[in-house]
DNA sequence: GATAGACCTTCCCGTCATGGGAGGGTCAAG
DNA sequence: CTTGACCCTCCCATGACGGGAAGGTCTATC
């Protein structure tokens, strides 16, 4: 199987497969005489694993750890769970931050007439510079909103 | 006021202020004889506006639009509201995606013993490659998880 | 007036996971 | 033997910054 076939079989783009090789996430596939990458079922399964993990929002670094635990038949499930729980906490924190933004925006939007007149509570809020409640620091908060 | 004083007054780092100049978000401040940027109250207010908008998760592009409406005293509040509502929809969509991830993870985590044994429903799920419900396409879904 | 150190300037690189595309080699079918 | 669909590597871009180098400026103290 060359990279195109591996891509179809795994649902991961060729660009991403090459990137995963580059960062050492998956072992380099063997190469044909003409320097084409070659894949077998094992690689395909790893690519599917990565894809699924990405769809759950794990970072590449976390996936590196998960993959290595996956390959280790004697791993303690404790370690897997720890990674999952850490990520879950991360997700919940970000959800809460974004929910706070959404709540504020929802409120402002409801207060805004949305007509031809210039008066606008949304702009008024942005002007007044009401500080968000300072839980984790605003810059972090903003960064994570991305 | 030079850039350091503007930074303290607005709560925006000097790096960010220079970046906002670079992308044309705020009008270039005047320059002193020694090429130092100079700021007045107007600039400070704009920086505070940007900071507050960022804390609500608006992108730079949206803030560009919001700033131009803010400067226009005859803007219709309809336009401001449209931007806010679009962003709100965006936020809600991303929250829903992340919540779906969190729900799945929460379930898997609860099913995982988290002990010394290697059996792990989390890894099993990643292996089986259960596809996420295909609403908006998985790649978009994954990208947004960042 | 000299020197220190706290500022300012521009410029370039790195982030993270990925897409786009150039420039060139390879393979299979017609 | 050509065509077009692949493959290769390498570089650039994304968004919203942070870090840091190399060099100019200001201010306070000696």
From TrEMBL, chains A, B:
Q: Does the keyword Protease apply?
A: no
Localization per Swiss-Prot or TrEMBL: Cytoplasm
Question: Does the UniProt entry include the keyword Ion transport?
Answer: no
Outline the extent of the HTH merR-type domain: 1-69
Which Pfam families is this protein grouped with?
MerR, MerR-DNA-bind
Extract the InterPro entries matched here: CueR, DNA-bd_dom_put_sf, MerR-type_HTH_dom, MerR_fam, Tscrpt_reg_MerR_DNA-bd
For this UniProt entry, what is the primary localization, expressed as one broad class? cytoplasm
Ordered alphabetically, the record's keywords are: Cytoplasm, DNA-binding, Transcription, Transcription regulation
Q: What name does the UniProt record give this protein?
A: Cu(I)-responsive transcriptional regulator
Q: Which organism is it from?
A: Caulobacter hibisci
Gene for this chain: cueR
């Amino acid at each position: 199987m060359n990279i195109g076939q591996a891509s179809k079989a795994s649902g991961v783009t060729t660009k991403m497969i090459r990137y995963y090789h580059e960062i050492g996430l998956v072992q380099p596939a063997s190469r044909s005489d003409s320097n084409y990458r070659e894949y077998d079922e094992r690689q395909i399964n790893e690519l599917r694993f990565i894809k699924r993990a990405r769809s759950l929002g794990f970072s590449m670094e976390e996936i590196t750890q998960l993959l290595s635990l996956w390959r280790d038949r004697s791993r303690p499930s404790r370690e897997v769970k720890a990674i999952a729980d850490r990520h879950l906490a991360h997700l919940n924190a970000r959800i809460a931050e974004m929910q706070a933004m959404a709540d504020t925006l929802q409120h402002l939007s409801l207060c805004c007439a949305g007509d031809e007149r210039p008066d606008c509570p949304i702009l008024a809020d942005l002007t007044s510079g009401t500080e968000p409640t300072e839980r984790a620091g605003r810059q972090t908060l903003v960064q994570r909103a991305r």
